[in-house]
Please model this.
Amino acid sequence: MTDHQEAAHETDKLQAFHWRQHKGKLGIALCLVIASVSAYCAYSVASDRYSGLSRELQSKLDQAQVEYKHLLAQSSEYKNMANILEQKYALDAPHGATRQIMALVKERLESGVSPDRVAFLVAMAKNASGCEQNTDTRRFLLQTSLTTGANSAISFANDTITVTGRGSPSRDANDSLQAWFDPAKKVEILFTRIGGKEHPVDGTLPLHHSVVSDNFEHRFTIKLGDARGFVVVTEQRCGFP
Model:
């Protein structure tokens, strides 16, 4: 083998050595490139998906805000309607004597009296009802949560109408509860006809109430009595209707 051939052989061996050295590095570099490309692709896919999800969520948020504003407008409208209805009810609903009369008419209808009969009696009613000049005045001790039943009831119309009542206890200067009722607060007066039919009335004194019994209207006035804890009830009997 000539020197030239030996030199060429040595060169080939050297090149093969260098290639083996760099082959491993090239493999690592190729893996890094592949990994980078894969990561970029995954990022791009995730970014596109996130962007789509973000747009979808933003759209739903905008829709929810629109619906919220719509509900607020509806709520305001319903509130205005409720205020109008409340004012209308305050004007149209019966109060005071009218309310008592309507309750009496309802009670008569529910007890079986025909509407024609009730309408006839209402139409026949008039102020000149032939009331008796004489009145009957009695008193009783208005009960509270601190009192017993002594002197707590009175009767009218030959014991066919019994009157009782309850009130809230008074308080002294030291804010201690007293047995007698507080005349500044509402009281409840109960008229009971023979047979157990009850007619309650409540409010601050004086109070007025009528009970119909045996073709007579018994008109009652309830006032504060002179003696502490007592109320005075005056009855006037009038023709009915």
